[in-house]
Design brief:
mainly alpha
Amino acid sequence: MNWTRAGLKMAAKDHLKKNHWGCVGAYLLTMIVIGFGGATSGFFIGIAILLLGYILQVGLVGYFLKNRTEHPSMDTLWKTSADNYGNTVGVMFLMTLYVSLWSLLFVIPGIIKSYEWCMVPYLLAEDPNMDRKTAFARSRELTMGKKMDIFILDLSFIGWHLLGMLTCGLVEVLYVAEYEHATKAELYVALKSAK
């Protein structure tokens, strides 16, 4: 392993300090749109917002990747996929569908597939024209032999999430979610540089 959890988290904290409120705003905007899509009673409006949610998810990843070296603007959330919105939506939809189908088959294979393809949004953030086959294969390559390490990295945030619940979500929204996103951006860069 070329990276450590402590190293990723330290780098994430450093980058988060430089633009904390921008990161909070980007996260909140994304969650509001995705939450609105889930709460919408109209079928077609809900589907449209769900599809927009995929664009914003990739945009949020792109925001945190850019936040490592600059102060990105909010329009990063939709400009990240501007070259090919249709491809971004298609690949993200298929990733969600495939993970769901694997999870229906058995829970453990679904979890393994979710970790195998966890870098797909990051790959799309860097190249919105990357097709599904390439994105899935590249994510598989990046996470090969690292899935357990990534799982343990996720587990290391449990205490933070519990604190978020104890504060009725306030700490989650104002710090924990951004800290975790910043750490995952560091993870992607570390995995990519190791290949």
